[in-house]
UniProtKB/TrEMBL annotation, chain B:
<protein>
    <submittedName>
        <fullName>Anti-sigma factor</fullName>
    </submittedName>
</protein>
<dbReference type="Pfam" id="PF12973">
    <property type="entry name" value="Cupin_7"/>
</dbReference>
<dbReference type="InterPro" id="IPR014710">
    <property type="entry name" value="RmlC-like_jellyroll"/>
</dbReference>
<dbReference type="InterPro" id="IPR012807">
    <property type="entry name" value="Anti-sigma_ChrR"/>
</dbReference>
<feature type="domain" description="ChrR-like cupin">
    <location>
        <begin position="110"/>
        <end position="204"/>
    </location>
</feature>
<dbReference type="InterPro" id="IPR011051">
    <property type="entry name" value="RmlC_Cupin_sf"/>
</dbReference>
<dbReference type="InterPro" id="IPR041916">
    <property type="entry name" value="Anti_sigma_zinc_sf"/>
</dbReference>
<dbReference type="InterPro" id="IPR025979">
    <property type="entry name" value="ChrR-like_cupin_dom"/>
</dbReference>
Length: 224, 226
């Protein structure tokens, strides 16, 4: 699997994270001082989660530009793999990023990482635009929703830590599992078609996917 | 409130999380999710995997000027959504159908057009996707209502069928199915479910075998396909 790149791939027209930090240094220093005077947070580049929170809370355009620099090229890769044509793809990426701007105030870093939250936006955008369907989703505030009896701190994923564990687990996944996982997320094909194309029995495709998901779940839950 | 005991299984949840299911099938899964915190949690974990995979994708440079174009549109977005419309007011009583089913079929399906099928059993098409929106998939969603204690005729059919119980329940070789329980059946199964004494109302989604992915499990094939 390819190594996960972070800052090396900023779009040339996006401010780098470092510039963002310089512009926003006062804010971060202030926040860090409020919670923990000894915190090194003021020296660290803000994470994608921090940036997305700033966009939601402060309508922070510099933070948004940094998010764009990181995510727009990845959204383009995602949408291209799932069938968007090169021209339409640019518009879809822009629309997805505008959705990020519009909805950022609903982002809760205790529930999901910025990558996860933006993945769900891109996924739904693709269903809307390329498949021209709606994406049926639950409404968390629906009175008819059966509440989670265990909904509490113990189920809240400690997003920053679990994201790091998940990344490590992805990096060390056996290649044959990683490949199928990519296909499951990034190719609009039934598992049976994937199996035929790879010359694998359907059961093998499913068991590899299951093994991959088991490992990743354990990483998320810190059960390793 | 009892929690469901019959779940979609990992493959269908993964296809839902990755956004690859046809809309009627996704509607059946989401209806189960509204009743099943455990499967909601599983989907949230699968979305986290999707986020990490997105992060690891080889980036493709966007067109020059793309960022400027988006930045220039932010003000317009802000203006358009400055005053978000108030959420629709909640009904006083808890509706029978959870979201997202409610926005397709109303609070209890009563406003749909019901057609009798056999004595004691009727069905109503759930409008999923407008004309030309369903992308040519063969999937169809219907509500089915069965009178109490009614045994269904034995049957098999060519496609697959996903059933989610909304009210009442049924029983078959695999056990009792109550609100929120999801059953999955294909042509290999021939059986005879019987509605509970209070009757059964369920969402039934039929789909051509090639559209459905992740068809794991030998569950059951309840009720008529037509
Ligand atoms: Zn479930």
């Amino acid at each position: 699997m390819r190594p996960i790149e972070r800052e090396a791939t900023q779009a040339p027209d996006a401010p780098t994270l470092r510039q963002v930090r310089l512009v926003r240094g006062g804010v971060f220093a202030f926040n860090a001082g409020m919670s923990d005077p000894a915190s090194p947070a003021a020296d660290a580049a803000p994470s994608m989660d921090d940036l997305l929170v700033s966009v939601g809370r402060d309508r922070d355009r510099v933070a948004f530009a940094a998010l764009f620099g990181h995510f727009a090229p990845r959204l383009k890769a995602y949408l291209r793999r799932l069938g968007a044509d090169p021209v339409g793809c640019e518009e879809l990426v822009q629309e997805a990023m505008l959705m990020v701007w519009r909805r950022a105030d609903s982002f809760d870093p205790r529930q999901a990482s910025a990558s996860t939250w933006i993945f769900t936006i891109a996924r739904n955008k693709r269903v809307d635009s390329l498949r021209r369907e709606h994406r049926p989703e639950i409404d968390p505030d629906d009175p008819a929703l059966v509440p989670d009896p265990a909904e509490a701190a113990d189920r809240m994923i400690e997003a920053a830590q679990s994201t790091a564990r998940l990344r490590d687990a992805l990096r060390t996944l056996p290649p044959e599992q990683a490949e199928l996982l990519h296909l499951a997320y990034f190719e609009d094909k039934p598992h049976s078609v994937i199996a035929v194309e790879r010359g694998l029995p359907l059961g093998t495709v499913k068991s590899r996917l299951r093994l991959a998901m088991d490992r990743l779940r354990k990483a998320l839950r810190d059960e390793q | 409130m009892t929690l469901p005991r019959h779940h979609p299984g990992e493959a269908l949840l993964l296809d839902y999380a990755s956004g690859l299911l046809a809309e009627p099938v996704a509607l059946a899964i989401a209806t189960h999710l509204a009743c099943c915190p455990a499967c909601r949690h599983a989907v949230a974990e699968m979305e986290a995997v999707g986020g990490a995979l997105l992060d690891g994708l080889e980036p493709e440079p966007v067109a020059p000027g793309s960022l400027e174009a988006v930045m220039a549109r932010l003000d317009r977005v802000d203006a358009r959504f400055a005053a978000p419309p108030a959420r629709p007011s909640r009904p006083a009583a808890t509706p029978l159908f959870p979201e997202p089913l409610r926005r397709y079929a109303g609070a209890d399906g009563r406003t749909l057009r019901w057609t009798p099928m056999v004595p004691g059993m009727s069905c109503a098409v759930v409008p999923v996707g407008g004309a030309g929106r369903s992308g040519g998939t063969a999937a169809k969603a219907r509500l089915m209502r069965m009178r109490g204690n009614l045994p269904m005729p034995r049957h098999t059919h060519a496609g697959v069928e996903i059933t989610v119980v909304l009210d009442g329940g049924f029983r078959d070789e695999l056990g009792a199915f109550a609100r929120g329980d999801l059953s999955f059946g294909d042509a290999s199964i021939d059986h005879q479910p019987v509605a509970d004494p209070e009757g059964c109302l369920c969402l039934s989604v039929t789909v051509g075998p090639l559209r459905l992915t992740g068809a794991v499990g030998r569950f059951l094939n309840p009720f008529l396909s037509f």
